[in-house]
Amino acid sequence: MTTEVKRLIRVRVDKGASFKRDGYGKKRQLSDSWRKPRGQHNKQREQKKAKGALPKPGFGSPVAVRGMHPSGFFEILVSSLKDLEGLDPKTQAVRLGATVGTRKRIIIQEQAVAAGLRVLNARVVRAKARKIPAKPVLKEEGKKKEETKPEGTRKAEKKAPAKKAAAKPKAEPAEKAEKKAPAKKAAAKPKAKTTKSGVKKNE
Hints:
Blueprint: H1 3-15, E1 74-78, E2 92-96, H2 102-114, E3 118-119, H3 139-147, H4 151-187, E4 192-194, E5 200-202
Parallel strand pairs: 1-2, 2-3
Antiparallel strand pairs: 4-5
């Protein structure tokens, strides 16, 4: 970029005016993007000093740098490899389209850089081959992972033996009943009948 182009870009910046639509500060729903005033009694259309400037030819940028990027290059929108043909790397720069996918973007960026062109919206794209492979799981690590279980499983393991211990007392009454049954049979003795003479006889 020559010194004359730099000077003209500086002039363009100094001359530039930010034109704002009338009433953008009065109503919240209105943005400051420029809209031409069309009202019959609109003060901005009548060019009242306090109502803001209107776009006029005097605000235009120098013809030599009109439409030029601040870097000093003219932008060329590119969406395929064919668009790179016939571009001048000294005066033109490349801007990749928003609809270009990642796979094509990598190819177009590489071709543009190889041709000496400047890419204004270049991106650092990580190739799939650069992905870090997963680490192999060692046997010791596997054991550690088995030992460290979530809290939910630990609680379930603690509760399971408690249920088994609680089930044992239910079996004890049955065993006691079996032990008590023969005792009752042994205790049962033949009843003795008394006769008129007072002698007791066993049945």
